[in-house]
Amino acid sequence: MEALQLAKQSGSVRKGANEVTKSVERGLATFVVIAEDVEPEEVVVHIPKLCEQKKIAYSFVPTKMDLGKAIGMNVPCTAAAVENQGGAANAIKDVIAKTTGRSGGEAKAEKKEAKPAAAPAAPAPKKEAPKPKPPAAEAKKA
């Protein structure tokens, strides 16, 4: 929560499930926080899978209200994505290390290594036999 407060003050944080989804899909998010008490769950259930695909660290907090307060809102918030860590870089690295079991630097190095490997060369397309052309009489009728 403290890391989110610092990021909000000195960096940039996106709020809400839709904004977080966009940030993750675009690869702008560095850390994502999701509330556990979201109803219906379908609103945020896709976010962890997206984060795993993009190799972005994510964590859960118990309530929407706590998450909203942490990012300076007086209303509940379902999810938040840190795009620019600002002065919270060290605090966020610590949180990432605790949640994933590795340091933030290792996660970034792994992300960089994964990008070239993620785009394997496509196999050469198989050549198919040319399709027979319709007889000229049928072509004129059509």
Oligomer description: single chain
CATH homologous superfamily classification: Ribosomal protein L30/S12
Cα gyration radius (Å): 23 Å
Average pLDDT level? 78
Q: Measure the end-to-end span.
A: 70 Å
Briefly note the structural class of the backbone.
alpha+beta
Largest sheet: 4 strands, mixed
Number of helices: 7
At the third CATH level, what is the topology name? 60s Ribosomal Protein L30, Chain: A
Task: Please give the CATH architecture.
Answer: 2-Layer Sandwich
> What string gives the helices and strands in order?
HEHEHEHEHHH
Helix content: 40-55%
Q: Total number of β-strand segments?
A: 4
Describe the global form: globular
CATH class: Alpha Beta
The neighbouring-strand order within the major sheet is 1-4-2-3
Q: What key phrases describe this protein's structure?
A:
single chain; 142 residues; alpha+beta; 60s Ribosomal Protein L30, Chain: A; 7 helices; globular
Structure write-up:
The structure is a single chain. With 142 residues, the chain is α+β, with helices and mostly antiparallel strands. The protein has a single domain, classed as 60s Ribosomal Protein L30, Chain: A, CATH 3.30.1330. Helix content is 46%, strand content 14%. The chain contains 7 helices and 4 strands. It has a 4-stranded mixed β-sheet, with helices on both faces. Strand 2, helix 3 and strand 3 form a beta-alpha-beta unit.
Topology:
Blueprint (H helix, E strand, L loop, with lengths): L1 H9 L1 E4 L1 H10 L4 E5 L11 H8 L2 E5 L2 H7 L8 E6 L4 H12 L3 H14 L18 H6 L1
Parallel strand pairs: 2-3
Antiparallel strand pairs: 1-4, 2-4
Helix pairs in contact: 1-5, 2-3
